[in-house]
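#lab-general

N.A. 3:47 PM
ok so I finally got the sequence cleaned up, no stray characters, all 69 residues accounted for. can someone with queue access submit it? mine expired

B.Y. 3:52 PM
send it over

N.A. 3:53 PM
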Amino acid sequence: METLEFIIYPDGRVQEKVTGIVGASCAEVTAAIEAQLGQVLKHEPTSEYFAAKVQESNVANTQNTYSDW
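B.Y. 4:20 PM
back already:
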């Protein structure tokens, strides 16, 4: 599940936490929001940022062997 969490501090700072998005696509998801919030002071990539997307294949390799035994 993809989630965006925002913590707004009394001094106006906003902390944003993105979970459930693998790879750098989280930057695409948050770019418009960050543009509206103002200056970004720091980015801290999580382990999900560095994770590779896993692609599953539905192709099954089969081999039929016939014998004259």
